[in-house]
Design goal:
By secondary structure, the protein is α+β, with helices and mostly antiparallel strands. It is about 35% helix and about 30% strand. It has 2 domains: about 10-200, no CATH class; about 205-250. The protein has helices at about 5-20, 45-50, 75-85, 115-125, 205-220, 230-250; strands at about 25-30, 35-45, 60, 65, 85-90, 95, 100-105, 140-150, 155-160, 170-175, 180-190, 195-200. Helix 5 runs antiparallel to helix 6 (about 230-250). The N and C termini lie far apart (about 80 Å).
Amino acid sequence: MRNPGLFSWVVGALMLGVVSVHADSLTIIVDRSTDNSELYVAGPADTLLALFDVDPSVVPMRDGVVDYDAFSLGTWGIGDALLKHTRVTFNKEQAGFEAMSFMLHPAEDALPMQTPLDANIAIGICSALSSTERYHLNDMTGYVGYFSPQSSAASAIEVVLPAVSQSSLKVTIIDYTQNASSTVVQQFKPGETIRFVISPPARNGSLVVSFSLFVLASFLASLWVTVQPRVAEKRLELLFAKSHLFEDRRASGP
């Protein structure tokens, strides 16, 4: 016989999971390089428009459903509208982002959003265009991508959205720099200003150099028993002299 109590607990847990999945959330990917920067944002379409303070009428609609045919004319205008009242800066200077594309995908078939490649695919294809089914805006997930000719490789990136969240909001920020990534999750309460700062990547060049010098020193030390001691000693003296010269240059600045 089925246990009613256990059955109710399982159903309750599943329902809680559904609620969690549909909670307000945004995913933001930053792709930095030494030449330019890219920014991608994804989230439930109605949440996305509300948080960026954009009237839903900016999305082409026909008889209450999304008009995908109109998307063929270009969607960067929707993307620019999303960023119109949003502040994005690199070290407190305007980031200069312009929209590449905006796209909607059915929430039930939402595309992955973990890497810049994922984001490029999401804003570049329309998974519902070939389908005869049409969707309401609140059944969609929105994806938008932006490009800036400015580098943010060494910048603190600040993002301030123009509207406050009407419910609890989770923002997942994925920061890509030179094929390395870091992920930070921030939670915002209802009515809280949505502002976050993505710190510049850690500079670990001196650590790499120091480690390399340590490895070389260890290697030369290991040769001590196989080469003439005086030769090894001279090599070690030269190595450490170069190390001190490097540190002196770093201390004196560029």
